[in-house]
Amino acid sequence: MLRASGRTGLASFVMPRPIDAPRTVMGLTFRNAVGLAAGLDKEGSCIDGLASLGFGFIEVGTVTPRAQPGNPRPRLFRLPKADALINRLGFNNGGVEQFVRNVQAANYKGILGLNIGKNADTPIERAADDYLFCLERVYPFASYVTINISSPNTKNLRQLQDAGELDALLAALRDKQQRLDDLHAKHVPLVLKIAPDLDDAQIDDIAATVLRHGIEGIVATNTTLSRAAVLGMEHAEETGGLSGRPVFESSNEVIRKLYAKLGRDVPIIGVGGILSGEDARQKLAAGAALVQVYTGLIYRGPALVRECAQALA
């Protein structure tokens, strides 16, 4: 429906006008502070339809160099008592070349984040090759690029959050970014997406590494492996990442700890468990400069986007 409404322009006649409450972050001017989190539109095929829902910015992906089917079905589960989802999708997408074609076909002119990852069959020691390959191809079409190293559904991916591996990856990406800046005569900020399942030492290491390499933003956070908040519920024992209300406090805690280390030097995009305008306000109170929604959109619908945008205006 989103794809069809985007093609026909029908949604623009049905949906109310987006909230205009501009804010400048990472040198980019966002229409409002509420964005769509990556993962809903992995192919970048529904950008125009999603734009009609009132978002201040949109992030699509995660895309990988080559097409891959993701993990076997069933791989997505609702836990309605907890306003939560568990997914083990596994970066299912049609590959970066098709992704770029979809992005180019969109009419959307707002802030567009493109989220990149690695193929499941790429050895972790060669992960940087996949990120560099994707970065080169999406760079001309992105407002910012998110480096996803925190999905729990690609084997060993979260290993890239370890200090040594992260240092090497970010060094390679920053070098590539500088060369692409010159090639395309435009600067595209790099943003790092991290997990909520980090201890204080890991958070400190990530903050220090991000500052050292000049990474321009952090998305905090991805889904959690914890099941403490959903014990005994149907589907709670399914493997994958848990999102929605149960991750709200843990993501806020990561945001607070990051903000204590980074201040305003590296803006934080707060994600995880936003189901109301007050939830969005609490993300900003924790230290986020912007927010993104995904699971809340599934349970609340487009009204959540407007409610959050008004709350943060």
Dominant shape: globular
Q: Please tell me the total number of domains.
A: 1
Number of strands: 13
CATH level-3 fold name: TIM Barrel
Largest sheet: 8 strands, parallel, barrel
Portion of residues in helices?
Answer: 25-40%
- What is the CA–CA distance across the termini? 29 Å
Secondary-structure element order, N to C: HHEEEHEEEHEHEHEHEEHEHEHH
Q: Give the mean pLDDT.
A: 96
Q: What are the low-pLDDT stretches, counting only 5+ consecutive residues below 50?
A: none
What CATH architecture label applies? Alpha-Beta Barrel
Class of secondary structure makeup: alpha/beta
Rg result: 18 Å
Name of the top-level CATH class = Alpha Beta
CATH superfamily: Aldolase class I
Count helical runs: 11
Instruction: Provide the β-strand percentage band.
Output: 15-25%
Strand line-up across the major sheet = 3-4-7-8-9-10-12-13
Can you put this structure into words, describing what you see?
The protein has 313 residues and is of the alpha/beta class. It has one domain (2-312): Aldolase class I (TIM Barrel), CATH 3.20.20.70. The chain is 37% helix and 18% strand. It contains eleven helices and 13 strands. The protein has helices spanning 2-8, 10-14, 47-51, 96-105, 127-138, 163-184, 200-213, 248-262, 277-286, 295-300, 303-312, and strands at 23-25, 28-30, 34-36, 57-63, 76-79, 84-87, 111-116, 144-148, 190-194, 217-220, 241-244, 268-271, 290-293. The strands form three sheets. An eight-stranded parallel beta barrel has the order 3-4-7-8-9-10-12-13, surrounded by four helices. The model has no long low-confidence stretch (mean pLDDT 96).
